[in-house]
Amino acid sequence: MQKFDLIVIGGGSGLDIATTAAFHNGLKVAIIEKDRLGGTCLNRGCIPSKLLIHSADVIETIKRANLFGINVKGFSIDFKKIISRVNEITDSESDNIKKSLMEIENPKLFAKECRFVGEKNIAFENKKERIDYDDDEIITAEKILIATGTRPNIPKIKGLEKSGFITSDEALRLKKT
Predict the structure, then answer these.
(1) Burial class of residue 110, CB neighbours in 10 A (0-12, 13-18, 19+)
(2) Residues 151-174: pLDDT tens digits?
């Protein structure tokens, strides 16, 4: 069993606490994140939406260029390229965070799904029916912070499942218009 002073579950805002605890307070810290690092803001929120809005602003500027005495004769919009650019930027940032954490010992990154298997004991195993774990599969800490953020809440509306709805998770990674 690996012992830490602090375990942070969630690699979004939890990163700030984990790195502060490790770098400034000298605590031995574990970070657990099963998905992309950087949280909602980087991966499905603030940053990708602002990048998309910027592209829309550039399009609007081109459309209104004639107001400034600039004549633009035709242009086209490559939606797939816009989305690809946004994804490349956000994915690159997330990958850089992961790379940085993998290169250091503290805080230690566990890029896995986890679950509590006892009081202050966390295991990395996807088989939910399993109840016995070897000591080397478990980490523990006196303090555990759960900073897993949120996920979209799908309202229970009759027929919604068949409507083809999307959430913010899918909206910022659309493949077609």
Answers:
(1) buried
(2) 888 889 999 888 988 887 787 787
Nearest Cα to Cα of residue 107 among 81, 134, 65, 145: 145
Whether this model's pTM surpasses 0.85: no
Task: Give the pairing of strands 138-146 and 2-9.
Answer: parallel
Give me 121's structure tokens: 């004991």
Closest CA to 121 of 103, 109, 135: 135
Domains of the chain: residue spans and CATH: 2-171 (3.50.50.60)
For 75, what's the count of Cα atoms within 13 Å in the CB-facing half-sphere? 13
Query: Cα(66)–Cα(54) distance, rounded to whole angstroms?
Result: 20
Residue among 155, 82, 66 nearest 90 (CA): 82
DSSP state of 110: E
